[in-house]
Write a structure and sequence with these properties.
Blueprint: H1 15-48, E1 60-62, E2 70-72, H2 74-90, H3 93-102, E3 110-111, E4 117-118, H4 125-134
Antiparallel strand pairs: 1-2, 3-4
Helix pairs in contact: 2-3, 3-4
Length: 136
């Protein structure tokens, strides 16, 4: 492994150079683990307080008055209710998706953080399953 420093000359072939590279690698790994632990703790704390941590949630929109909260999306809430009712009627996620698509229902179109446009799509098995298992 090579270590390049613009201000000093490090020889990674010597014992001192190898030790330095090993210590730097261990410190980098430690910092990466610390960052992951802080993120997991933060997400768990927000979940325990009932706050939203981001992402697109079908049937809800971010509440402009209360950061971290969601409000029901009126049109999408009707689709979510229809998905539940259809699933209770037929008992099949595949059939629920097929019926939703036959009625012309689509997922939400949105613009991501990077400005990327995401078009509305027909409901797939995984989308319907996620909706049915996420709103309890």
């Amino acid at each position: 492994m090579d270590f390049i420093c613009l201000k000093e000359d490090f020889d990674t072939m010597t014992a001192q150079g190898k030790c330095f590279v090993t210590i730097m690698g261990a410190l980098n790994e430690f910092e990466r683990e610390q960052t992951g632990e802080r993120m997991r703790t933060s997400i768990l704390a927000r979940a325990e307080r009932g706050l939203w941590s981001g992402g697109q949630v079908f049937g809800y929109l971010p509440d402009p008055q209360r950061k971290g909260s969601l409000v029901p999306h009126p049109e999408e809430a009707k689709i979510v209710k229809c998905l539940y009712d259809t699933y209770l009627e037929c008992g099949s996620v595949y059939e629920t998706a097929a019926r939703a698509n036959a009625q012309g229902f689509r997922t939400r179109a949105y613009t991501g953080r990077g400005g990327v446009q995401h078009a509305a799509k027909p409901f797939a098995y995984t989308t319907v399953l996620w909706v049915l298992t996420s709103y309890t």
